[in-house]
Amino acid sequence: MRALRHRAAALLLLLPLVLGGCGGQDRPYAVEDVRALLDAGVFSGEMEAVDQGVLPLLYGVDEATIVDCKGYLALNASVSADEVAVLVLTDEAAAQTAQEALQARVESQLETCRSYCPQAVPSLEAAVVDRVGNTVLLAVGDPETLPGAVAALGK
Description:
single chain, alpha+beta, 5-stranded antiparallel β-sheet, 6 helices, 20% strand
C-alpha cells in the first residue's frame, strides 16, 4: 500500500512536466503570429488582409476592447472558409468575450458552409479558437497541418 502511495505521489509530481510538453501555448499570441501561420502554408488559396477597422465588426467584438489586431480571409470564400486572426485585448475578461464571439463565428460559418461550401466543413470542424491571457487566436485552415503550426507558435 505504501509503495502505491509513493508511485501516486511521483506521478502527481511528474504531471505538470508531462502536460507542459503537450504543445500548449507558452506565451500570449501576437499579431505577428498571423504572418507565421500564413508562411506555414496551412491555408489553401490566396488570403486577403482584413482592415483593422473591419475585424471588430466581422467578429462582433467591441472595438474599444481591442488594443491590436490582424486578420486574413480566404480571397475566394465560395470554395474556402480559411481565415486567421489574432486579437490583443485590453484584459482577460475582454479576451474571454472575444473568444466566445470567435467561436460563435466558427459555428455560424460551419452552419452556412454545410449548404453552400461542403468542402470547407472539415476545416471549420478543426478550427482553432484559443485564448492566452488577453489574446485570442482564430485559425481555420488545413485540418492536418494547422494544429502543428499553431503549437509551434508558442515555442
